[in-house]
Amino acid sequence: MKRNLPLLATGAILLVLFGAAAVAYDGFLSSRVIVNLFADNAFLGIAAVGMTLVIFAGGIDLSVGAVIGFTSIFTATLITGRGLHPAAVWPMAIGLGAVLGALMGTLVHVYRLPAFLITLAGMFLARGMGFWLNTESVGISHRWYDALANFDLAIGDAVHVPAAALLLLGVVLVGYVVGHHTRFGRTLLAIGGNEQSALLMGLPVGPAKIAVYTLNGACAALAGIVATVYTSSGNASMGIGLELDAIAVVVIGGTLLTGGRGHVAGTLLGVLIFGTIQAAILFDGRLSSWWMRIVVGALLLTFILLQRIFVRRKS
Amino acid sequence: MKRHSSLLWLAVGLILLVAYNLVGNPAFLKISVQDGHLYGVPIDILTQGSRTMLLALGMTLVIATGGVDLSVGSVVAIAGAVCALLLNSGTSLVVTLAAAVGVGALAGGVNGTLVARLGIQPIVATLILMVAGRGIAQLICGGQVIIIDRKSFEFLANGFVAGLPVAPLVVGGLYGLTHLFLRRTAVGLFVEAVGDNETASRFAGLAAARVKILAYVFCGVCAGLTGVLTAANIRAADANRAGENAELDAIFAVVVGGTALTGGRFSILGTFLGALLIQTLAATMYFRGVPPAVAPVPKALLILAVSLLQSEKLRTWIASHWRRKEGAV
């Protein structure tokens, strides 16, 4: 019960925010708006699930936004420019993301370098490589892309769930199982709680740390692919600043940034809170987009202070 | 000993970079006098690099206390927005400068309180202002780029005094003052003590929390002044672009300069050289025709190289390898 307190708080805030928006704006409380909360934030959510696992282990990855940008332009260049099939390009893109993640994880673990600095270098590297491929946006038209864009799962007559939303739910489910119901997930939490103790307990600290950065790289690349489907194009400037949103969403979801405690499901709630604020600002029409940043900042502050109180009381 | 070795590496790197430039462009180091003031690539590097240098100066102290300040880029944007707001409503330059510095100090105070009094991780505590700060700057600017038409303001970034560029003079002066203040008084020692071992320094009777807060306030003031220089340089407040990724360059300059991210010993001179290296690298890429968008790649490689050089593990490995070879001979 107590373990789930942050999760409950996040859920309550989501309900309050959504309720307030539903009262304030006509038509906000509709299945379309709710489905779009998932679909529009699918790539943020997928990246945030990977980030959650990294943060479980007390790490951080600043490169996810840049990896999304790189994957986006990489995919578009190969499909449109070289005429390759998406079925061949997607695994390559995910593989590249995983390799970059593995490299960063190795540097962080083997050479005991600060994750913050190494993933910063990864961010510069991925962003620069993306722009090196193409500084312009590249459109994608392919049968598979059209099919994905038109695909939706009808639940009853009114609700149509698009592919991106389904994929987000799938990734959250996988992340939940990996994070909370596998040995790997428990190892990550143990590392985040106290790396020294985890090592003394005989847990595979090194392999787990490298694996989680690898997994996160793959997640970011997958998010990049979802972004190409969402926009039917690739753009190297995709996902600028997204790493901050992802970290914010994870924290709002009740995961401790010091590691050792957290919820993958909370991250999904965080993404929905983020999406609700964005949708409300869009619905209002008078509020400018910068309120988004201010509100997210205020929410971050609230949650961090709450976590602080929560942790202090426990110790 | 170790302190000097990292400075030495930095100087070697800088000399190599300049030598590389001299091969392709023999006039790289040439300084001439035009229209009564100095002119040339080194002057450009100092003038354009002065902003990163100033940010890195404040960041040095924060990192020395074992923290980090991610919000400086957003504070740069806020300070620029405040300058535009005040100057365009007819406020005097002195009051405007004071306001920009005050905004910076306030931001630093908030960060410092969150870190030192509430015990929040520095990355997280300053992330809040990093996210919200840019929104606040956009709110002040109303989402637009505001042109600032005031000669005396632009002079701060692009002017010359007795033939010398103003911005590097101001920043150089601040470096000198900070160095004297930290090394001639005990404050520098306090900062290093808190960064090295906070608990121990508290037991030794140091007001560790106060030292930390002051470091963040100083960093905020530097960011506020950088905001002034940034806005003055382009004669406008741009809430979206001003100070974008500036925190990364500043942190990078500090780390390259030999101050470890874990806190403790710091080097003001190292930070200066680190910022100089970054700006020289930027100039190099400009002259070599590397598109600005691709410029992050060499920067990333430099960060990786420097981080690896500083890694204790790699150092020991190289040292043991070296010794084994010598023994064989």
Could you describe the 3D structure shown?
The complex is a heterodimer of chains A (about 325) and B (about 325). Chain A is mainly α. Chain A has one domain (about 1-315): ABC transporter involved in vitamin B12 uptake, BtuC, CATH 1.10.3470. Chain A contains 14 helices and four strands. Chain A has helices at about 5-25, 30-40, 40-55, 65-80, 85-110, 115-135, 145-150, 165-180, 185-195, 195-200, 205-230, 240-250, 265-285, 290-315, and strands spanning about 140, 150-155, 160, 235. In chain A, the strands form two sheets. Chain A has a two-stranded antiparallel ribbon. In chain A, β2 (about 150-155) and β3 form a beta hairpin. In chain A, α1 packs parallel to α13 (about 265-285) and α5 (about 85-110) runs antiparallel to α11 (about 205-230). The radius of gyration of chain A is 19 Å and the shape is globular. The mean pLDDT of chain A is about 90. Chain B is mainly α and about 325 residues long. Chain B has a single domain (about 1-325), classed as ABC transporter involved in vitamin B12 uptake, BtuC, CATH 1.10.3470. Chain B has a two-stranded antiparallel ribbon. In chain B, α2 packs across α12, α3 runs antiparallel to α4 (about 95-115) and α3 runs parallel beside α5. Classes of the chains: A mainly alpha (about 325), B mainly alpha (about 325).
